[in-house]
Write a structure and sequence with these properties.
Blueprint (H helix, E strand, L loop, with lengths): L3 H10 L5 H24 L11 H4 L6 E12 L4 E4 L1 H4 L3 H6 L1 H6 L3 H12 L6 E14 L2 E2 L4 E9 L1
Antiparallel strand pairs: 1-2, 1-3, 3-4, 3-5
């Protein structure tokens, strides 16, 4: 190991805490602990790190249904295509965080079509964009049966 004598000298040179400093550190630690405890019991995702990050704090049932959203578009020649997030500049979580806005105002999907056309200048021209919710039944944590889809919002040029 290197620096053994230097490390010992640094530790020896560190000032000792006064009684008031120790009490202040303990008080701060207690407040943080109480906030973490309260956040764990009653908090929501937007209070992270004092609230639970539910994505990692909960589990899915192994039998049931899983769902996800994706964007699909119709091109000028009538072909239906999948639009990956990189094609229009949003990650999946960002898209899913805006679902209520897209459902309330489907015209916003037109902005994603515009972003797609700017980012994919050689890509096909889009005449429609569809926000589609997919559902997949699960048994034992594995897909069972065919996925089903439902269009929850659409925009047409």
């Amino acid at each position: 190991m290197q620096g053994g004598a230097a490390d010992s000298a640094a530790v020896a040179a560190a000032p000792e805490l006064t009684g008031g400093a120790r009490r202040a550190r303990l008080a701060v630690a207690a407040v943080v602990f109480v906030l973490l405890l309260a956040g764990t019991a009653w908090g929501q995702d937007d209070q992270f790190p004092f609230g639970p990050f539910r994505m990692y704090a909960t589990r899915q049932r192994l039998d049931g249904t899983t769902s996800w959203y994706q964007l699909e578009a119709t091109t000028v020649d009538g072909q239906r295509i999948f639009l990956p997030g990189a094609a229009y500049g949003l990650r999946r979580a960002e898209l899913e965080g805006q679902i209520p806005r897209f459902v309330a105002d489907p015209g916003l999907l037109g902005q994603l079509a515009y972003a797609y056309e700017v980012r994919q200048p050689g890509g096909p021209d889009l005449v429609e964009v569809h926000l589609v919710k997919w559902r997949q039944p699960l048994e034992g944590g594995r897909p069972s049966g065919d996925p089903t889809s439902k269009t929850v919002a659409s925009w047409r040029r």
